[in-house]
């Protein structure tokens, strides 16, 4: 339904309200499993990564999304979580993050494509080679 009403101001306000309510209800609520909250965060990250994004998420919740996506203890949907984060970065979402913290989280989570993106931005090309060698998806 988020795709149906791109230029309708009232629909955009409803979308923001829906996101706010979902976050308020699900985050820090023991009735929802980490997988369910993770699904919400993955959905939210995909919405935020869109070039025509109009949604707003406060800094604290944005950090929670980042923490979830980079959780090294969760092997489920590793590739999907990395891809969502990469999409966020490619559309300029990196301005929302402390890059050093993001790099540390990405290294811990073995998100080699994220590390590569950040190393390239910093012109640390020698470290990119390590990303290629360590990334089992690209061997």
From TrEMBL:
A GO CC annotation given for this chain: HOPS complex
GO biological process, one term: endosomal vesicle fusion
InterPro entries reported in the protein's UniProt record: Vps41/Vps8
Stretches of the chain forming a coiled coil according to its record: none
UniProt-listed PANTHER family: VACUOLAR PROTEIN SORTING VPS41, VACUOLAR PROTEIN SORTING-ASSOCIATED PROTEIN 8 HOMOLOG
Protein name: Vacuolar protein sorting-associated protein 8 homolog
């Amino acid at each position: 339904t988020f795709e149906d009403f791109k230029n309708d101001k009232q629909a955009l306000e409803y979308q923001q309200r829906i996101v706010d309510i979902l976050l308020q209800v699900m985050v820090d609520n023991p009735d929802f499993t980490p997988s369910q909250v993770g699904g919400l965060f993955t959905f939210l990250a995909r919405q935020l990564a869109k070039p025509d994004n109009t949604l707003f998420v406060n800094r604290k919740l944005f950090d929670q999304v980042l923490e979830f996506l980079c959780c090294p203890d969760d092997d489920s949907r590793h590739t999907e979580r990395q891809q969502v984060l990469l999409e966020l970065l490619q559309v300029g979402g990196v301005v929302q993050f402390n890059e050093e913290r993001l790099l540390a989280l990405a290294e811990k989570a073995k998100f080699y494509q994220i590390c590569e993106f950040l190393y390239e931005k910093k012109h640390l090309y020698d470290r990119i080679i390590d990303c290629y060698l360590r990334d089992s998806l690209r061997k």
